[in-house]
Every structure is written in structure tokens, then in C-alpha cells.
Write a structure and sequence with these properties.
The chain is mostly helical and 246 residues long. The chain contains 5 helices and 4 strands. Strands 2-1-4-3 form a 4-stranded mixed β-sheet. Helix 1 runs antiparallel to helix 3 (94-175) and helix 2 (32-87) packs antiparallel against helix 3 (94-175). Residues 14-194 form the CT398-like coiled coil hairpin domain. Residues 204-238 form the C4-type zinc ribbon domain. This is C4-type zinc ribbon domain-containing protein. It comes from Nocardiopsis suaedae.
Length: 246
């Protein structure tokens, strides 16, 4: 392939721009804020599950407390009824009186036991409320952190997109100065190797970073200036410059 030396030199500008565009794309894919948002999403999901579990546990304790208090009320009501009978002198039989007094004492012990149960449930409920409040606070904080991370990611993406648009416009202008056949070859090689054109600098290919042999340099030295030469090792287009060492 033949191409004017200045057109070949323009390939290095195109390659520089393409490398910058590739770096911008890589930066967009690997923004630390993206991983931060992902991690926070996982944390938020986990905290949400824990909040739900804590709410369920608190609801169960509410039911348990209501039942325990109801049991206390039932025993208290029965005890009060028996005391009223005793105080009113409605029981005349000594045996029945003894039985009623025994039942009142038994109900008193049962009431005390049930009141201890209520206190225990209330203590557990208080601890459950504190745990639920802590989890809700952690969830709120995590959501705030995610929103801040998302804002930072959006700002970074806006900057990247601005740079990408600027580089894309510049590439369009520079690529328009390269003949179609030369640009097509460059594009094919870039798609294959990531870099389509590289400078020959001091006898070394800047694409694969390998030094050319004396024979290879001799062949390039003898080639016409408009001859498009390729690196024997990496097959990229070699662009001759004033620093080629020929």
C-alpha cells in the first residue's frame, strides 16, 4: 500500500486519539463509585431484610405482651371476684371458706408469676425496639451514602462524556485527512491488536516495544517514503519519523 508520509504521520494522531478514547471507556467501566454503589446496594438490601425481620420480631413481642397482660387481667378479675365474696361474707361454710382463701392465695401467686412474664416480655420488647431503631438508622445512613456515591458517579460520567465527545470530534477531523484505504487498514489492525499504527523510534517498534533487526531496518531504509511498512513482529503499521534511527 502507498500513502503520503504526512498521511501516515496522521495515523499516529488518530491512534493517540483512539487510545485516549479507549482509556475513557475503561475509566467509565471501572469507576470506583460504581463499585461503591454496588456494595451499598448489597448493604441496603441486607439491612432492609434485617429491618423486616426486626419489625416481625417486634410484632410477635407485641402479641406476646398483649396475651401476657390479658392473662394477668383474667387472674386479677377472678381474684377480685373471690375477694368480694370473701369480704361480703357470702361464704359461711368453714370448708368452703378455706377453699376460697386457698384459691385467692393461689391466684395471687399466679398473678405474680404472670406479671413477671409481662415484665420479661416488656424488657425484650424494649431491646427489640432499640435494635429496630438502630437498624433503621443504619439503613437511612446507607441510603444517604448511596445517594452521595451516585451523585459522584454521575458527575464523573459527565466529565468522561464531555472528554469523549471532544476526542470524538477531534478524531473525526483528523481521520478525514487520512485516505480511506489507509484508514481501513489501520482500523482493521486496531480492532485486532488494540493499536493499529505505531511510530518507529530509534529502531524500535512503539507498538510491541521490540527492537527491529538490522536486516529489517535496512529494508525499511530502502523503502520508498510513501511505502506503508509493517512491523514483522506485531504486524502493526510502522510510521517513520525523524526519530526512527534510519
Amino acid at each position: 500500500m502507498k500513502a503520503e508520509p504526512e498521511h501516515q504521520m496522521r495515523l499516529l494522531d488518530v491512534q493517540e486519539i483512539d487510545s485516549a478514547l479507549a482509556q475513557l471507556a475503561h475509566r467509565a467501566r471501572t469507576l470506583p463509585e460504581t463499585e461503591e454503589v454496588k456494595a451499598l446496594d448489597g448493604r441496603i438490601t441486607g439491612l432492609g431484610d434485617r429491618v423486616l425481620a426486626a419489625e416481625t420480631a417486634l410484632s410477635d413481642l407485641d402479641r406476646e405482651q398483649r396475651k401476657a397482660e390479658s392473662d394477668v387481667d383474667q387472674v386479677r378479675t377472678r381474684s377480685d371476684r373471690d375477694r368480694k365474696r370473701l369480704d361480703a361474707g357470702q361464704v359461711s361454710s368453714p370448708k368452703e371458706l378455706e377453699s376460697l382463701q386457698s384459691e385467692i392465695a393461689s391466684l395471687q401467686r399466679r398473678q405474680e408469676e404472670l406479671e413477671e412474664v409481662v415484665l420479661g416480655v416488656m424488657e425484650r420488647r424494649e431491646a427489640a425496639e432499640a435494635e429496630l431503631a438502630r437498624l433503621r438508622k443504619d439503613l437511612e445512613d446507607a441510603r444517604g451514602e448511596r445517594e452521595a456515591a451516585e451523585d459522584r458517579r454521575s458527575a464523573a460520567m459527565i466529565d468522561i462524556e464531555g472528554d469523549r465527545a471532544s476526542q470524538a470530534q477531534r478524531r473525526e477531523r483528523v481521520a478525514a485527512e487520512v485516505p480511506d484505504d489507509l484508514l481501513a487498514l489501520y482500523t482493521k489492525l486496531r480492532d485486532q491488536y488494540g493499536v493499529g499504527a505505531a511510530a518507529l523510534r530509534y529502531g524500535r517498534c512503539e507498538g510491541c516495544k521490540l527492537a527491529l533487526s538490522t536486516a529489517e531496518l535496512g529494508q525499511i531504509r530502502q523503502a520508498e517514503p510513501d511505502e506503508v511498512v509493517r512491523c514483522e513482529e506485531c504486524r502493526r503499521i510502522l510510521v517513520r519519523t525523524t526519530e526512527s534511527g534510519l
